Amino acid sequence: MAYYESIWIARQDISTQQVEELAGQLSQVLTDQGGEVASQEYWGLKNLSYRIKKNRKGHYVLFNVSAPAEAVQEYERVMRFNEDIVRYLTVRVPELSSEPSAMLRDRGERDRGGRGGRGGRPDRGDRGDRGDRGDRGGDRGGDRGGERRERREGGER
Predict the structure, then answer these.
(1) Strands of 22-145, DSSP E
(2) At 10, which helix (H) or strand (E)?
(3) What does the pLDDT profile of the chain (157 residues) look like in tens digits?
(4) How many CA atoms lie within 13 A of 127 on its CB side?
(5) Using CA atoms, how far apart are residues 18 and 83, in angstroms rounded to an integer?
(6) Domains of the chain (ranges plus CATH)?
(7) What is the distance between the alpha carbons of residues 120 and 111, in angstroms, rounded to a whole number?
């Protein structure tokens, strides 16, 4: 059997419970055809890069699948006709990964505060030596500032 990674996006207006039920139905399609879902990850409700069928957000789900090609074709056919699924992509991979996906690893680092309190940016007090920045005020060139002042004061040009 071949290995596949399949990511699909469900509509934003369905609940998380409905997404889990949908994942169960799709998993059942694969198992009925002789395949199996090795792992399943729910990535959550995320913003889409652009609007798809009037949706600005979507529920992302990843399946790691071990199945024959016919099972994957049937799985994609079912997704194509399901109105709750906005987009899907299935890619054949050489082997299935046993560790969590990058999306779940990044979420774990954020929850633990792995990037720091400022989102990876240094704190304001940690800018180091900025050197002499010279005179930052005063006239910024030409006589135009002076001309404006004279006009406001009622003076001649």
Answers:
(1) 36-52, 55-67, 85-93
(2) strand 2-10
(3) 899 999 999 999 999 999 999 999 999 999 999 999 999 999 999 999 999 889 999 999 999 999 999 999 999 999 999 999 999 999 999 998 888 888 887 776 666 665 555 555 555 555 666 667 676 666 666 555 555 656 666 665 5
(4) 5
(5) 13
(6) 2-96 (3.30.70.60)
(7) 14
